[in-house]
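Workshop exercise sheet. Pairs work together: one partner reads the sequence aloud, the other fills in the structure field after running the prediction. Swap roles for the next sheet.
Pair: D.N. / O.F.
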Amino acid sequence: MEKIKKSNLIVYIFFIAITFCKGIGFSNSNNIYICIYALGVALLILKIIKDKISKKEFFNIFSILCIGVLDFFIGGETTILFTAIALCSLKNISIDNIIKIMFWTRVVSFVILFVFSSLGIIDNNTLIFYRESEGGFITRNSFGFSHPNIAHSALTLIVILYGYIFYNKINTFNMILLELLNILLYQFTFSRTGFFITTIYVLFLFMVKKFKFVRNALPKILNITLIMCLIFTFFMAFGYGKIGFINDLDSLLTGRIRYMNILVKSYNIPIIGKIDYNNILFDNGYISLLYTGGILATSWFLFQQIKTNNIIKNRKTEEMIITIILMIYSLFESFYANILMNPALLFFAYYIFGNTEKGNGKENE
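Structure field:
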């Protein structure tokens, strides 16, 4: 890990705290989690005063903070505000250091929950679930997390972060071990989304490492991937009940597309987001951003994503890999706008602050 400036140490402590809370399964409504973010607001104010931000930086952070505050007070949505606070603390901060912190903190939190649940210190949160493809009822283990899907998504994110940090050292043998770990956990969680995304990521990583033409294609497909994910999201939502393979995909995803169809047919897209949608489940990051974040938040995030993609396509291969896989993952999980579940959002700091040197992620002095 690169040398850490003393004045930025509090930012790293902040990210350790919020990553650990999220890693052990705290929701956005958890009081401890909220208190840590409240301290983050004080941190943000002090950091803005110290760092002397430019007009462009002020506009970017002020706009998303205002949107986050409006979403919170009007619609009760906290994700946009929490991500905004985290993003605004990143001026002159090494993104590589933050990603390493997130990786090791998540490894520690995962091991703690796994060991404690296995020893019976905390509840395993087992779930009896009927799945026709598995031949009837199955027992799904959560290993201390609130749901088996969350347990597997925790491993998926650890694998993705591992691939980023150790990209230059990782080899075929390492990738096989990662996939074996993925297969092993699936025998307990039966989480198909986490399993398939991890498998796709390992295969994608292998292709990028093995074939130069795949590496060369990455800069060209960054924004294409984003656009295709958005198109496919609405294709699924409006195609449900009309197109056979969409209905088959919905069965595989245990009704997620059906909920999207109900949402787009029953509710108008709000300017300011809200969370009251009659208990409709959000399992698509783009739909979730649009309806719980609103048009304003969605416009900000998509603008930042496109601008950031145009920057990272000239930087490190691993930044493009993690961005592409997390954009795809967001098709099947609701966390696109959550910086702790979608660490590719950390790269927004490149456009907002321009705070890292090309390719090395070192802090500005």
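Discussion prompt: Confidence is low (pLDDT under 50) at residues 357-361. What would you look at next?
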